[in-house]
């Protein structure tokens, strides 16, 4: 696999994961709404934080396009870090909303 194909595959994989996390955030929002107004208010900040982290990850993914060499590695590391933060935040939110 060429470097270009590897980069494209990575970007597609991360975009698919981001789509999955978008769906998970939507599920958490629905769960908060179903629990009633008090729960929705309680989780509003948490959901806002998730969306902020999701948007930061999306921005990093967009920045990844067109990068090469050391810049690619640096931006990819940033994507991986943002991904880890988003994943942990979603898991914490999911645990709190049980």
From TrEMBL:
Keyword terms of this UniProt record: Coiled coil
Record protein name field: Coiled coil domain-containing protein
Highest taxon of the lineage: Bacteria
Species: Microbulbifer halophilus
Stretches assigned to coiled coil: 11-67
């Amino acid at each position: 696999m060429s470097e270009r194909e590897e980069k494209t595959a990575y970007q597609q994989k991360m975009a698919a994961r981001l789509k999955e996390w978008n769906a998970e955030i939507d599920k958490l929002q629905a769960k908060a709404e179903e629990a009633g107004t008090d729960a929705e208010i309680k989780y509003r900040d948490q959901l806002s934080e998730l969306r902020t982290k999701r948007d930061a990850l999306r921005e990093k993914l967009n920045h990844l396009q067109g990068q090469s060499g050391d810049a690619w590695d640096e931006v990819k590391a940033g994507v991986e870090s943002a991904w880890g933060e988003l994943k942990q935040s979603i898991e914490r939110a999911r645990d709190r909303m049980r």
